[in-house]
Every structure is written in C-alpha cells, then in structure tokens.
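Re: beginner question about structure tokens

> Can someone show what the tokenized structure looks like for a real chain? I only ever see the sequence side.

Sure, here's an example I had lying around. Input first:
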Amino acid sequence: MKKVLSIVAALLLCVGTQAQIVSSRSAIVKTQKQASNTQWFLRAGLNIMNLNGDGVEADSNIGYNATFGYQKPMGGAGAYWGMEFGLGSRGFKADEMKCIAHNIQYSPFTFGWKIGVADAQGSLLHNETIYSHPPKNEYSQAARSIVKLVEQYQIEAIAIGNGTASRETEQFITSQRYDRELQVFVVSEDGASIYSASKTARDEFPEYDVTVRGAVSIGRRLMDPLAELVKIDAKSIGVGQYQHDVDQTLLKKSLDQTVESCVNLVGVNLNTASRHLLTYISGLGPALAQNIVDYRTENGPFSSRKELLKVPRMGAKAFEQCAGFLRIPQAKNPLDNSAVHPESYPIVEQIAKDLNCTVDELIKSKELRSRIDIKKYVTPTVGLPTLTDIMQELDKPGRDPRQQIQVFEFDKNVKTIEDLTEGMELPGIVNNITNFGCFVDIGIKEKGLVHVSQLADKFVSDPTTVVSIHQHVRVKVMSIDLERKRIQLTMKGLNQ
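And the corresponding structure tokens:
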C-alpha cells in the first residue's frame, strides 16, 4: 500500500448567544496561524425584515450583520472549540416609531473533516480540513479537494475514523468519482485521542496539532495496526469491559507478551514499524529503534536487510540479533521477507545452485524443494535443526496468519434507530464483549446487544469463544425499545 488517505470526521461546535434569528448570505475569509493552530474567520452579510400587523404600516428594512470568531483544535479526533462574535441590525418602521435592534449571532455547528495523506512508511505528506455540511456548505470545494488529493498522491486506500459523523463521511467519500479504484475502510478510533495528545505524538509531529496527529494515526492503523497500537496504553485501546478495573501493571505485561509473540511469529515490516514496535525486537533499544526510523525517513524505505548496517550505532552484534525478525516485502532478495537469517543466506543460495535454479524459483516450486537432501548441508556450524527451520520457512516465506482485510459496509438504509424493524438482518461489528453477551455496532448511534443465549445455535458459556473484538458479523433485530434506545439482536440461524 503506497498511499493512504485518513479522515477523521467530527462535529465542530461554536458556543454563543442568540438574540434574534438572522437570515443572511455571508462570505467567509479564513486565515490560520501555524504557531497557535487557531483558525480565524470573518463573515458579513445583509438582513431583510418585514413587519405586518393591525395598525402597523407594512414596511421592510435592510440591515447588516458582521461576525468575527475563531476555533481551536480540541482532542485528537478532529474536534474544535471556539467562539463567534457578531453584530447585526434589524429594524422596522410603524407610524412615527422606528426601532433598530442589534444582536449577537453565532453558528450553531459545523461539520469539519480533518484529512491526512500518508505514504507507505506512514509519514505525513499533506493535511487539511474540509467543510461540506451546513452552515458553511462547502460541498463542491470539499469534493474537489478529495478528488485532487487522490489523483495528486496516487492514493490506494482511504481510512475513515469510526467516530462522529463517520457514516456521513463514508457516504460523501464513496459518492465521488476518482481516476482509480479505491478501497474505503472504517477504522476504530479507540485510543486515537489519547495518542494524539501524548508525548509520543508530540515527538513525532511537534509542528502539528492534535487533530492532524489523530488523522495520521487513523491511516497508520489501516497500514500496520500493531505498529500504531503499541503506542497506546492497554487500558485505552478499547478491547473489553473491565480493562480499567484490572491491575494496570499486569495488563501492560500481558500486552507486551502478546506483542512479543506476534513479533516472534510473523516478524515486523521494517518499512512501516514504529519506534515503539521496533523496541520489541531483540537487540534493538529505544535509541537504535529511533535511528532506524530516522534513517528511513531521510533515505526512504529499506531495500534490503544489509542496508540496516548503514544505520548509526547498528553494530554487527545488534544486526545479528534483530535481522531475522525484520521483514522487507517486495525486496529484491526474497529471503529478506522471510525468517531466514542473513547468516544462512549462503546455505539457501548453495541449495539453489545445486538444483540449477534461482532462490526465487526455489521458494515458489514445491517440486524443487522436495528434491533437497538437507543432510548434505550439515556442517560443524550448521546443524540439522537449523536446516529444518530453513526448509519450513521456504515452504511458507513471510507467512502472515491474518486473513485478507475486507471492505466492510453498513446497511445504507439504516441511519437512525427509527429505521430499524423487527426481523431485519444487518451487517455489524463487535465493539465490546461482556460476560452476558456482546455489543454490535450496526452503523447508528445506539449499539445493539446480542445476549449470550443468542450468540449461536448451541449453548455458549463464554462469549469470547464465539466472537472477538472488531469481528464482522451478521445479526437480526429481535426487538427495539425506542423510548429507552435499546436494541436486542440475535446471531442464531445466520451464516457468519
């Protein structure tokens, strides 16, 4: 994946007082100060008022309105706060009496989407904010911006945070015409605001505000979830009901063990791994991990494992310890994307030479590998267990046990709880698991409950044996309580 466009949708609120309803068309001028990340705006327009009634001379009066305000980023998911001050005149004439009213005005809300473009290494290439909803209604401008970014940066996938207005964002994105095939994914925002305000995020993006950092995090979660999620405290990831109640030291220890198991099983992508993920690799401490990231940022993606030796402070011993866990997809040497250690490359090359083929052909051909007598390659320094491990890796190089990512889409006809009917089948995503069942996101504000008795066509004592966090499921609506905003769902009788 070369380019990812990440979008964080949020409801942007402006607080003020309203003395009078004002109808006007106004022009908006925005400037931005990079130092404070404050967006300033000025609006001006005309008002027209009509007054009719018994004993009153019908008349109309044209007045003015002018507003000045600002908004500042709040949190890490694209939200803003601000104030807007305005002065307007509205008046009428009745007999000899004239009245001019002055008022304070405000914009009740604005939909704003923070956009970030990331390259294959997760580096930020571009960011901006677009407004396609009232009161600004910059729909055409926002659409042109998205289409232009896709073309300019040759974007291959779009990641949308699953927070406020994610459905509206997804609908807007998928309704545009692009010059290429795009995949659109809705990505969990759990912990994004925690990361965006953390020291880690400030160190990575000192010149950007929290909303930009949050957008980058959303894109990186699509590209390499493990590399991004290790930056967040386990209690903030959103993986269960009781994560805040358990001992935080034990929770962190359990998370570290899980990450280490993943690293040992499949390795890490050298060109997307974050500094935090690299520290889990044998031989790499925080300083050396940062040097790898800095080298990658300055010189582009690594093309081979040998290039690691150019990283400052990367000695022979550290290279020996870490190289086998670092993968480079689409590397010139296919062994760079395998668990075969560089010190064993000559063995594989000798085997390929003896079979009169290339290393790439050896990996792809099961028939060639079946002709290998590994006992011939036993040496005083290379034993049979090492050779067996090499052969197993040649059978499944770069093996990743995860399934291919799938594009998920909520039911387009369901936008609110009022759109639900009993018996309706819907796609959903499991977002929480409890002892009594699981909660499923079906694309509306309210989450539906699948009771443990409704999880499967068999007895279930532990919901985690049937469902997992972020799993895609099919559910059927059993009952709807509009007054209490509660939805009962079932998974019985449905193919999962």
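Each token stands for a local structural state, so reading them left to right follows the chain. The first helix runs from residue 139 to 152.
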